[in-house]
Each structure stands twice: as structure tokens, then as C-alpha cells.
Amino acid sequence: MELEERVSELERRLEALVGVHPEAPSPTGGDFWALEGLKQQLAGAADGGVLYTGAVRLPTGERYEWQYGALTEQLLDAGGAGGAGSAGEGSEQVPAGADWADVAESFAALGHPVRLRLLREILGGRRTAAELAALDETGTTGQIYHHLRQLTGAGWLHTKGRGRYEVPGARVVPLLVALTAAKP
């Protein structure tokens, strides 16, 4: 790593440690506005449903707005999962009749610390294979390409030109939701 890159990395880490970060809204009292809105939308659905949504700005300045909802009956049906209305940039739905096992590859791709680090770095602006290979503690170039192929195959990344990677817009908020849900 060159000196300028090392200083930039240290500045980014310092900001993450001591930067001013607004607290996430606390779900107390009247703060269940999203839940109340979902319940109104699902008034006719006996078993309810789930909704996740987000409006994010990445360190690169890119902005994404996304939401996805699904009925509980469709999610728990022995043969299926299905979306029940979605809107926003890059929304996607799981096709009705999809088996839970169909999403195992997507979850498995997130199950390695180096892959999570690569995703974080890509969201943070490091987009080329050369930039990712220069990172400490990510393995050899061959190992990095293996991880990038796993993430690409699972849909968490796509290539944009030669040796450039990005998280597809439709996957930015779902990735952040999965990371938030995985925290104990």
C-alpha cells in the first residue's frame, strides 16, 4: 500500500471510531410508524407479513431507496416464498413457489469474513480487483478472486467493466438489512 492509501485508510477508520453518528431511531412508544403502516396495508391478510425498507447514502455518494414486502403465508408455505408488493429503485421479488433452499447460496456467500470485508470495501469505493488485492488480511490474489466469484455467483456483486466490481443497486439495502438482522 502506498503512503497516500494508508493515510486515507487510517482517516476512514478514525472517522468510524470517533465520528459523529446519529443514533438509530428507537422503537418505543409512537416510533412504530413503519409497523403501523404495514399493518394498515395488510388489513386483509390474516397471517400478516414482513416489510423491510431503506434509504441509504454510501460513502461514495451513491443513494439507494428500496423496499420489499412479503405475506407470511407465502413465506411459510411449504413450497414457496413470494413478494407482496415492492417499490423503489431496483426492487426485486422472490418468485412464488421458490423453496427456502434456493436462497442458501446467497446466504452462504455472506458466510465468510473476507467476503463481508470485500463487500464493505466495495460499498466504500474500492471497486477494482487491484484495489481489493492491496488490502491487508484478505488473502492471496487467487483467494480474493475466488471470493469475488462466490459473491458474483450469488448475486451480491456484478462486474462493471474489466476488473471492476459493484454491489447491484437492488442488493445494497437487502445486504445492509441482512447484516443488521444478523447482529445479536
List keywords for this structure.
184 residues, alpha+beta, three-stranded antiparallel beta sheet, two-stranded antiparallel ribbon, 8 helices, 43% helix, 15% strand, globular
Explained architecture:
The protein contains eight helices and five strands; from the N terminus they run ααββαβααααββα. It has helices spanning 3-18, 33-41, 72-76, 104-109, 113-123, 129-133, 141-153, 169-182, and strands spanning 49-57, 63-71, 83-88, 158-159, 165-166. The relative contact order is 0.11.
Report the end-to-end length measured between terminal Cα atoms: 34 Å
In percent, how much strand structure appears in the residues?
Answer: 15-25%
Low-confidence stretches: 80-92
Number of H- or I-type helical stretches? 8
Q: Summarize the helix and strand pattern as letters.
A: HHEEHEHHHHEEH
Report the helical percentage.
40-55%
**From the alpha-carbon coordinates, what is the Rg to the nearest angstrom?**
19 Å
Question: What structural class should be given to the helix and strand makeup?
Answer: alpha+beta
Mean pLDDT: 82
Any chance you could write out the topology, listing elements then pairs?
Blueprint: H1 3-18, H2 33-41, E1 49-57, E2 63-71, H3 72-76, E3 83-88, H4 104-109, H5 113-123, H6 129-133, H7 141-153, E4 158-159, E5 165-166, H8 169-182
Antiparallel strand pairs: 1-2, 2-3, 4-5
